[in-house]
Amino acid sequence: MNAAIVIAVDGPAAAGKGTLARRLAAELGLPYLDTGLLYRATGRRVLDRGADPHDAAVAAEEAASMRPEDLARPDLRGPAADMAASTVAAIPAVRAALLDWQREFGRRHGAVLDGRDIGTVVFPEAPVKLFVTASPEERARRRWLELQGRGVAADLAQVAAEIHDRDAQDANRPVAPLRPAEDALLLDTTSLDADAAFAVAMALVRERLANFLDGTSTKV
After folding, report:
1. DSSP label at 11?
2. Which sequence ranges form a coiled-coil region, renumbered to this chain (predicted)?
3. Which of 41, 72, 154, 176 lies in disulfide reach of 147, CB 3.0 to 4.6 Å?
């Protein structure tokens, strides 16, 4: 595996992209970064200050002050963190503050990065781009089961409403809206379990990598 290879994995909430990206990274021997944690940590830092995640100045300040240990916080999941992350992610100054961090991570040793704009903004030149999705109903069910597994009381209808709101906010934000890159490989995991999704994704990635390396053999 070439050290400079970057694999971009994008998609909406609860589509399974995080689990998939981790397994791809392990299989290919590449570092892994969940870029959503950067926005979750930024949103949580804003909430810690008692500030509104819509406050662009505060959000940008917190993004610029990000520390590695912020990404390991145990409170980066859940409805409040989800919406705070989506809100700060729509702020141009926040995205600018975190963009170089993400690019440096990927360029240092190659990586698998998952998020919502990896293939469109962070690494538009990535040789492999996956856009992982699933039906809103299935994604709500998965998120509900995840919450139950963590001992968090949740109502399925409420979780579905939150998924709907998050999708709308991510897709309609003026900066880096959620959408597949033009050359992304689409993977619908609605009817696939984690192992089946990984098998399909691995086949897609290997085929795209083989084509890329065959066409750039003098550069790698």
Report:
1. -
2. none
3. 154
Does an H or E element contain 132, and which?
Answer: strand 128-133
Question: Quick one: tokens of 61?
Answer: 């300040």
Annotated binding site: 11-19
In DSSP terms, 149 is beta-bridged to none
> Domain 6-201 maps to which CATH number in 3.40.50.920, 3.40.630.30, 3.40.50.2300, 3.40.50.300?
3.40.50.300
What is the DSSP secondary structure assignment for residue 183, as one 8-state letter? Answer: T
Here the contacts of 26-29 (C-beta below 8 Å, separation 24 or greater) are 27/202, 28/1, 28/112, 28/205, 29/1
| DSSP 3-state of 12 | coil
Helix 36-48 with 92-109: angle, nearest 10 deg = 140
What tens digit of pLDDT does each residue of 137-196 get? Answer: 999 999 999 999 988 889 999 999 999 998 998 899 888 899 999 999 999 999 999 999
